[in-house]
Amino acid sequence: MNIFKLVARNITRRKGRFIFTLLGITVGMASFVALLSLGGNMRGEMTKQAGSLGAQLIITPKNWCAYDQISILTGNSLPESLQQEVLDDVSAIEGITAVPYLTLGTSVNNQSVLLTGILPQEMKDFKGWEVEQGEWFSSQDERAVVLGSGIADPFELSVGDTVTIRGETLPVKAILQETGGNDDTSLYMPLSVAQELYEVEGFVSYLAAQVDDMSKMEEYEAAILGVANVAITSDKQLLSTVLSMLGSVNLTLQMIAMVSLIAAAFGIINTMMTAITERRREIGIMRAIGGNGNSIFKIFLIESGLYGLLGGIAGVALGLLASFFIAPMISESDFAAFLKGAEFEASFDPTLMGLSILFSIIISIGSGFYPAWRAAKLTPVEAITHE
Amino acid sequence: MSNAIIKTQGLEKTYSKSKVKTHALRGVDLEIPKGSFSCIVGPSGHGKSTLMQLLGGLDRPTKGTVFVGGTDISKLNDKQLSNLRGERIGFVFQFFNLLQNLTALENIQMAMMFQKASKEAQWERAFELLDLVGLADKAEAKPCELSGGQQQRVSIARSLANDPDILLMDEPTGNLDSKSEAEVLKHIFNIHKAGKTVSIVTHNNELAQRAELLFEIRDGKLKS
After folding, report:
1. Fewer C-beta neighbours within 10 Å, C or N terminus of chain A?
2. Domain membership flag for residue B52
């Protein structure tokens, strides 16, 4: 006989209560882990998108809010509120190469998709894109579309097919090689054609710029501001803004998960307090035959810690399972329009999972502290004479 | 008596519940010699069980002292007192007080667990004791699968687990039929013959008559 065997016997004595208390901590941990796992992936995805942007400076209209900035990374349509002349002014500055983006929403085969108006040659050079199938635009105003690598399969399109945008039927000229970023999930057409179809001639959404000398960033920014009334964000600032917003969202989600964990902790306290009342006489017996307050404290603390261990393992497993099922659903929700990346997947980090189980044990031991202390404080005679 | 293993001086116990005070013991002086067989008798509610709880260190006196083997146990802290109970005193209660979710064997082992006995030592000693009380074949039985007499025999075996000097018993046969009572008493007498100090709180006149020493408690006092 040892304390662990005794605890195992005690904990499974009231199977219903054991299971429901365990479910409390399991569900709490599962929601915690699911949100942690999804949140971790969002950060990774945004960082990847910032990398694939291929630009050091983003030039946007002055009145853009953080939501618009996020949309640059998440690949959503943006208002066409920057005058195209700005492109010429910025491109005229020595050491800066800029390309315009006109990001618009359209639908193909009844599915919504992003349509990006680009300057074909400049963009290809800027991004270093390679064509997988077909041929790149032959002129700056060719009435055709090129597909990102992730578009062809889901939309059942291949080179030579046609798509209808704003009533005009356009051929699919090429499919790009996979880039691993948002570029894979857009349809591309020459800027002038997009402007004409959407009746936004003379306007673009934003400009992305590369600089020749990274050490002169401040000078470039000053030069741009000298020629245009715009806002400038560096790719790093953009990422940091997005990550900080994402951090707030994550924090909120984790707070919600914490509430369920706190509820579970109270469930453990309640179970342990009930157990102590029920087993008061047994505590007295153990005290009479030589168990000291410390031993009693240990027995009850291990018992509540065991809830944390078992609930933590089950919660982590359930949370990961849930996050793998939830991830695709989030990708299709409005929430995803705000936060999604090219591929929204749950991530598995063994260290994080280990820490989550440890966290669960700590919460459970913390919850068991007061009940265990109460049990240990019982004098042998008051426990043994309890009816 | 110089060979007293238990000795009390001016022992008092008062219970306070709200503003009502109940004087359970009002100055008890007694000595129990080592290796003796004594009984504590008296009407119900006159302080017999309280006296036994104080002798065994299950409770602390309001006033006065209890010496066990020369040690003033009222000065011991919780850990020391628990150790004393575990090592030197064995308890047997009227209602057996076995842990219902443990087997007969495990109930005995538990007493040794608190004294940090090894798994092997626990196993060996628990079987030896079950054999002593004639229940070796019931080692894996839970208390609910045993008769009252059998449960009390397991309880006696448990009280001997750490080979204590003193056995304190509170109405050990009070809840048994006559056949079981005879069986249990046989084991109690055998334990005494083996050299243990046995002190029993009882209403059983037959048992009391066989005691070497008889303490009668009335109104919280020892009747001389």
Report:
1. C
2. no
The verdict on B76 touching A (C-beta cutoff 8 Å) is: no
> How many angstroms from the chain centroid is the CA of residue B218?
20
pLDDT at residue B30, as a whole number: 94
- How many domains does chain B contain in total? 1
A104-108, Cβ contacts within 8 angstroms, sequence gap of 24 or more = A104/A77, A104/A80, A104/A194, A104/A198, A105/A76, A105/A77, A106/A165, A106/A166, A106/A187, A108/A155, A108/A157, A108/A163, A108/A164, A108/A165, A108/A187
Residue B109 has pLDDT above 70, yes or no: yes
User: How confident is the model at residue A70, as a pLDDT?
Assistant: 66
Q: Does a structural domain hold residue B97?
A: yes
The pLDDT tens digits of the residues spanning B135-148 come to 999 999 999 999 99
Q: How far apart are CA A334 and CA A337, in angstroms?
A: 5
CA distance B12 to chain A (A): 16
Q: Is residue B82 part of a domain?
A: yes
- Rounded to a whole number, what is the distance in angstroms from the first to the last CA of chain A? 27
Of residues A11 and B30, more confidence is placed in B30
pLDDT digits (tens, 9 = 90+) for B61-95: 999 999 999 999 988 999 999 999 999 999 999 88
CB contact B17 to A (< 8 Å): no
- Chain A contact set for B168 (CB, 8 A): none
Q: How many CB pairs below 8 A link A and B?
A: 80
The whole-model pTM stands at: 0.71
CB contact under 8 A, A286 and B110: yes
In chain A, residues with a C-beta closer than 8 Å to the C-beta of B79 are 292-294
CATH number at residue B140: 3.40.50.300
**Shortest Cα–Cα distance, B102 to chain A (Å):** 8
Is pLDDT above 70 for B10?
yes
Q: What average pLDDT score do residues B110-119 get?
A: 93
* Residue A280 distance to chain B (closest CA, Å): 11
The minimal CB distance from A380 to the residues B58, B112, B113 is found for B58
Range of the domain at B206: 36-47+77-223
Whether A13 and B161 lie within 8 Å, measured CB to CB:
no
- Interface test with chain B among A1, A15, A279, A281, by most B beta carbons within 10 Å: A1
Question: What is the percentage of chain B residues whose pLDDT exceeds 90?
Answer: 80
Query: Between residues 130 and 169 of chain B, which touch chain A (CB distance below 8 Å)?
Result: 158-159, 161-162
> Closest partner residue to A292 among B78, B113, B161, by Cβ?
B78
B79 vs A285: CB contact, 8 Å cut-off?
Answer: no
In a domain, B64, yes or no: no
**What are the Cα distances from residue A39, in Å, to A99, A334, A345, B127, B192?**
32, 16, 10, 58, 71
How far, in Å, CA of A323 to CA of A32, rounded? Answer: 10
Q: Residues near B216 by Cβ (< 8 Å), separated by ≥ 6?
A: B40, B41, B42, B222, B223
- Confidence check on the interface: ipTM exceeds 0.85, yes or no: yes
Q: Calculate ∠ Cα B83-B86-B87, nearest 5°.
A: 85
The predicted pLDDT at position A373 comes to 93
Residues in chain A where the model's pLDDT stays below 50: 333-344
